[in-house]
Amino acid sequence: MFKIAINGVCGRMGARIAALASEDSELKLVAALERSGHPMLGKDVGSISGCGDTGVKITSSLTVHADVLIDFSSPESSVTIADICSKKNIAIVVGTTGLGPQQHEKFQYYSQVIPCLVSPNMSIGVNILFNLVGQVARMVENEFDIEIVETHHRFKKDAPSGTALRLAEKICEATERTMEQDVVYGRNGITGERPANQIGIHAVRSGDVVGDHTVVFGSLGERIEITHKAHTRDTFVRGAIRAAKFIAKKPPGMYCMSDVLQIRSY
């Protein structure tokens, strides 16, 4: 049995992780963390996850040992809890989006001490999509224009989504493009003719959409569209729990969902 802790437990993802973890016979929830001053501090985690009395109180500090911690919070909080995990020898799974280069460098540093898995999207389908778009981009070369459109609920704080950025990174890796030179974020005004190497990313915010991502490969006369639609947040939760079980006993290092799912890159 794996002992797990959750950081950001009162968020949409954190609460669902607590709920599904309580139903998993391989997991024992030992800590539920939230920011200082949160109104739910001191309450049983079952009160926000709908899984009844668990005996685990929501706290702002990690005072017990766990095998692995799952984090869906904010970029700043994710780095802070990773530092704590590195000192307590606790593996960490991070699904927080909006992470910048400096924060990714921090996780690389902590991965020398503990196993770290950082992914903008924990779903199986999206991670298959990450692999597919690189393959398609290599095959079509510059004959097709590439655009990425992502849609999320109105409450999402970062744009474009971490998943859209990772899709663009995978295409750049496969085609010798660069994020800095070849990616544009939306368009406005008189933009001129579209450069052949350009990758456009467009963010839509609407209602309660969990997460849709479409990669469009378009040429003169035909178009290829690859789309992933998430119907429920439980898709990401199950992926995060699977990732937690995967890295709980792994040696220190940086891991990704491709490792968990054994997706082979081509």
TrEMBL record:
Pathway: Amino-acid biosynthesis; L-lysine biosynthesis via DAP pathway; (S)-tetrahydrodipicolinate from L-aspartate: step 4/4. NADP(+) binds at R35. The active site is at H152 (proton donor/acceptor), K156 (proton donor). It is found in: Cytoplasm. CDD domains: DHDPR_N. Keywords: Amino-acid biosynthesis, Cytoplasm, Diaminopimelate biosynthesis, Lysine biosynthesis, NAD, NADP, Oxidoreductase. GO terms for molecular function: 4-hydroxy-tetrahydrodipicolinate reductase; NAD binding; NADP binding; oxidoreductase activity, acting on CH or CH2 groups, NAD or NADP as acceptor. Residues 125-261 form the Dihydrodipicolinate reductase C-terminal domain. Its EC number is 1.17.1.8. NCBIfam families: dapB (TIGR00036). HAMAP family: DapB (MF_00102). Belongs to the DapB family. Homotetramer. This is 4-hydroxy-tetrahydrodipicolinate reductase. It comes from Candidatus Brocadia sapporoensis. The gene is dapB.
